[in-house]
Design brief:
By secondary structure, this protein is of the alpha/beta class. It has one domain: Rossmann fold (3-Layer(aba) Sandwich). Helices cover about 40% and strands about 15% of the residues. A five-stranded parallel beta sheet has the order 2-1-3-4-5, sandwiched between helices. Strand 1, helix 2 and strand 2 form a beta-alpha-beta unit. Helix 3 packs parallel to helix 4. The longest helix is centred in the first third of the chain and has 13 residues. The protein is globular and about 30 Å long. The two termini are about 20 Å apart.
Length: about 140
């Protein structure tokens, strides 16, 4: 994608910020996040919040196999998986990501998971309200200026 925002000048239209996948305050992103949530409305809300705070966000709300394929191909900096309504899919997806070399070291944040799921597969856990703070631990260390 071609850089459209080329200055550090503040753009006040939040819609443009979400469309471009980053805040209007930043030329560079904090990293790439992949969200797997089963509630589409909540997924869009979190996608917007993370995008407004400098993250490029990809999203899957319907199919854990499609999420797995997209995560393997895009290699995000952090994966957030919600299991509030679908703990079995969380365990299957997180287990599959841990089972192959290409995604084994990829940080997984368990959102709204029980203790077993948190401790077994996840590098961190969070509620939806605290997700921005939680994934900030996994932002790119060397942001290009």
């Amino acid at each position: 994608m071609k850089e459209i925002i080329t200055t550090n000048r503040r753009v006040t239209n939040p819609i443009l910020s979400v469309i471009f996948g980053r805040t209007a305050f930043h030329n560079k992103t904090k990293g790439n996040a992949f969200l797997v949530l089963w509630d589409e409305k909540e997924a869009k809300r979190l996608q917007g919040e993370l995008s407004m705070n400098g993250w490029n966000v990809r999203l899957e709300t319907k199919d854990s196999f499609r999420a797995y394929s997209n995560i393997k191909s895009t290699q995000p900096d952090v994966v957030v998986i919600d299991s509030r309504d679908n703990e079995r899919s969380f365990n299957e997806l997180a287990g599959a990501l841990r089972s192959i070399k290409a995604t084994r070291q990829m940080p997984i944040v368990a959102m709204n998971c029980n203790n077993e799921a948190k401790s077994h597969f996840a590098d961190a856990h969070s509620t939806s309200e605290g997700i921005l703070e939680t994934i900030s631990r996994f932002q790119r260390q060397n942001l290009n200026q």
